Amino acid sequence: MPEKNRTDLPRRxxxxxxxxxxxxxxxxxxxxxEAKGLIQSMRSRGNQRRYPRSVLRRIAVIxxxxxxxxxxxxxxxxxxxLPNDRQLLASDWEHLSQHWKTDLNERIAKLTALRDQLxxxxxxxCLSMRxxxxxxxxxxxxxxxxxxxxxxxxxxxxxxAAACIKGSPx
Length: 170
Known about the structure:
Layout: E1 13-15, H1 16-23, H2 27-35, E2 42-43, E3 49-52, H3 55-67, H4 72-80, H5 90-124, H6 149-152, H7 158-164
Antiparallel strand pairs: 1-3, 2-3
């Protein structure tokens, strides 16, 4: 049997263009991911970036996490705890997904509450200055906190916060 020469063996590293094509991510995005510490490359003798094949799975995880709304800083934090020199394993994904699942469930609950409140406001159409959680006349809720306080704290202190603005005219 003839001995295989080096060119017959599959290359272990991929060029930046090959990674971009295979992963569906722009070259500029790969450079951005690298600058943020999400992926790592090596340099060839000609000073060109080369990536291990395992980077493809890492990029897939990054894309999935981004689609679910996980900030890149959180993705980077979790991926930095995993080895960069090997393929991500099922156990790695389980660890990542368990950590992110709690955050996703919290965001889903908040979005569901927001959706339900918007539906009721659209349905009633009153936009009452006293009762509507979307309104805050004279910024009376500023003492309670920042942002859309009534929506963000729905059910917690809503009666107390609503009482704060009951005296306001419609």
